[in-house]
Structure formats: structure tokens, C-alpha cells
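Dear colleagues,

As part of the handover before I leave the project, I'm documenting each prediction I ran so the next person doesn't have to rerun anything. This entry is a single chain, and its sequence is reproduced below.
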Amino acid sequence: MLLRIGEKIVNKQKIHQTVDQILEMRSHGFSQQEVANTIGVDRTFVSRLETAGEIRKGGRIALIGFPIKNYEDLQNVAKQEGVDYCLVLSEQQRWSFVQSKSGVELFNTIMEIIARLRQYDIVIIIGSNMRIKLVETLLDKEVIGVQIGESPIAEDKYVNTEEVQSIIRQLQF
């Protein structure tokens, strides 16, 4: 779509494509200066673009938990607060996940999840005392545990979403 701004004709689609390209390059680790040189804009433009769209500063956050009765509410809170990775399951979902895979597939999937969690700066885990200790041992980073019972937990537990939201907000530096 073309827009007239004073004496100029501006291609709105080209602007959107350029912004998308800048953000894509930045999310893949290119420096602001590298992006600016490639796209042909000032580095300060890249910086101001990021500032305009900034939701939060700080480390990347992952949220995991099970068995959770109000898992959809927690997923919504995670999305609303900009959590980078969210895996929360009810007891039924947890068993479906386990039973849908062979032993090797399950092992590989769990290893992939652990490897993925290691990419985040902070991991919030909602679960039993044993699961929290296990995740703390597996990950060499900040782990925040929200205990919902003693292990083993065999039924869905209600989680106070306001408490989890408060924790997430406190982590936003």
C-alpha cells in the first residue's frame, strides 16, 4: 500500500518488510551495527525500533509444571507476561504425553526438553518437592520452584496464577 506523506510516496509494505528483516536478524544474534550496515540504516534506528517494541528486559524465562488443574490459565499468564517457553500440563495430558511414545521416543523427548530448558536464564517449575529438586539438579542456572505438594502427586492441583504472575513480574529487570 502506498501512502502520500507531504511530497513523498511511501511504500508501507516495504517498511514492514524492512522492520521484519531487522528484527529477524537481531533475533538470530546479529549486532545492531551489523544489521544497520546490511539494511542500510543507522544503528540508532535499530536501537529505537527495539525500544519501541520492548516488552521486558532481562533474561529469558521458561515455565514448566504438572499436574495442574488450571493449566490454561497459567498458559495465558505466561503468554501475557512474555514468558519465552511454557510447558504446563494436567495429569491427563502428562499421561497422554508419556503413553503416546515408545521408551526411546520418550527418553529423547525428555532429553530435548531438558536441553531446551538449559537455554533459558531462569526456569520456574511448578510441581512436587521431588520434581523441583530434580530440575534444580539438572539445570545449572536459576530455578524457582513453586511447590504444589509432596511427591508423588497423582491428581491435578490448582495453582494460584496471581502468585506465578507476581514471580514472573519480579524477574523482569
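Strands lie at 2-5, 8-11, 61-65, 85-88, 122-128, 142-149. The mean pLDDT is 93.

All the best with the project,
I.
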